[in-house]
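Open question from group meeting: does this chain pack into something compact, or does most of it stay loose? Before anyone orders reagents, we agreed to write out a predicted structure and look at it together. Recording both the input and the output here so the notebook holds the full record.
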Amino acid sequence: MGKNEYQEDEAARPKKKKKKSHKVYALMVLVMGIAIIVLAVLILFYVQKIEVEGNEYCKDKEIINTVQNDGFSINTLYILGKYALGRGEQLPCLDDMKVSMKAPWIVKVTVKEKPIVGYIYAGNEYAYFDKEGMIVYKGPDFIEGLPCIEGIDTGDISLYGMIESKDKSIFEEMLVTSQQVKKYKLSPDKIVCQDNKIYLYKGKIRISLGSSVSSEQIAQIPPIMEKLEGKEGTLHLENYSEGNTTITFNAEEIQEEN
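Structure tokens returned:
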């Protein structure tokens, strides 16, 4: 090997090492850059607060616990992604739940609860149910303006469980009644089943609806109640229909069912 060739090889070697060191440096910079970005995301999007709105009977804490139901739900982006992909959980008492970001560290949850149509007094608690007969809220809190269901034997009443009754057909009619009185904003004191017949109690007026309840029957009540203000007795609507529009009122002392 000639002298000139040897010198050329020696000159080339440092260049290869230098080129290799540049690649290692670039890789280190890239790794550090990614680490900084990941760290920034973890810090910036760390959930510090979850705001809940739209709920009346469902507790904020219960909704928040549902949103943060796993170990990764301390990150705002993770929570948003989870619900965007349809993998987020929703409480049975909610018709709708939307999750958004108010700030990188604040999650906003907007909910729409299932409407309550009535309640059953069970022990020392009130069990509130929706139009399907599902218990959507159970607790010591009394919510005004809702009818109490009485006179029906029910089984175990548990939160988010369906009310079951041996008198299935008449109970279904009572559910229909609950829906209709809410629709017409009647707010009766209670709905009672007695001898397989349904009665509404509003003040000193008892309204007899029979064993089958229709929207037409309930629609007659508001204007009639205005005329019966201050009176006591039974309003008979059990035979009312499109073909029979006879309505009677018997003035009498009402003995309420306990």
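Observations to bring back to the group:
The mean pLDDT is 86.
The first strand starts at residue 49 and ends at 53.
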